[in-house]
Amino acid sequence: VMGPKNKGSITRCTEFERTPLSDIFRGQLRSRILRQGDQSTDNVQPFFTLQLDIE
């Protein structure tokens, strides 16, 4: 992943098995840690959204 000013950054990713349901409801959230004078670090986390009404 390219950071600010086209500098590379360390990226951590978590992989999960793909299914038809996960393809519909899956997403990724990327957070970046910037430290002055150091290389930035990206963290990519998967999330699933499925809201069901339970009665």
How would you sum up this structure, described in words?
This protein is mainly β. The protein has one domain. The chain has one helix and three strands, in the order βαββ. It has one helix at 20-25, and strands at 10-13, 26-33, 41-48. It has a three-stranded mixed β-sheet. A hairpin with a 7-residue loop joins β2 and β3. The radius of gyration is 16 Å and the shape is elongated. The termini are far apart. The model has no long low-confidence stretch (mean pLDDT 74).
Q: What is the topological layout?
A:
Elements: E1 10-13, H1 20-25, E2 26-33, E3 41-48
Parallel strand pairs: 1-3
Antiparallel strand pairs: 2-3
Percent of residues in helices comes to 10-25%
Q: List the strand order in the largest sheet.
A: 1-3-2
State which percent range the strand residues make up: 35-45%
Number of helices: 1
The outline comes out as elongated
Number of domains: 1
User: Which value, in Å, is the CA radius of gyration?
Assistant: 16 Å
- Terminal CA distance reads 44 Å
Q: Please identify the structural class as seen in this structure.
A: mainly beta
Question: What is the string of helix and strand elements?
Answer: EHEE
Low-confidence parts, pLDDT < 50 over ≥5 residues?
none
* Tally of strands: 3
Main pleated-sheet profile: 3 strands, mixed
Kindly report the average pLDDT value.
74
